[in-house]
Amino acid sequence: MLGDASRAERFLSLTGLTPDELRTGLGDPAVQGAVLEFLCGHEADLIAAAEALGMSPAALAATREKL
Fold first, then answer.
1. Domains identified in the chain, total number
2. Which has the least CB within 10 A, 11, 35, 39, 41?
């Protein structure tokens, strides 16, 4: 997600997270939820992230419900 500059800028702007908060909070369910909420709100981002992770967009979106 952060490999694309415009996507990364939009993500950080919409979530209010800083790059440092994102890095240090990757194990935090709240940060994970913010990432998944962002991805689920933008279909193109969800598809790109799912492809990068080698999973279906539906499976990635379903992880949001598990948090």
1. 1
2. 41
| Rounded Cα–Cα distance for residues 31 and 25 (Å) | 6
- Secondary structure class of 57 (helix, strand, coil): helix
Give the model confidence (pLDDT) of 7-55 as tens digits: 889 989 988 888 899 889 989 999 998 899 999 998 999 999 999 999 9
Q: Which two tokens stand for residue 10?
A: 């939009």
3-state SS class at 55: coil
How would DSSP label each residue in 32-46?
A: HHHHHHHHHT-HHHH
Structure tokens at 35: 């990432």
Q: By residue range, what is the domain housing residue 57?
A: 5-66
Instruction: Tell me how crowded residue 28 is: count the other CB atoms within 10 A of its CB.
Output: 12
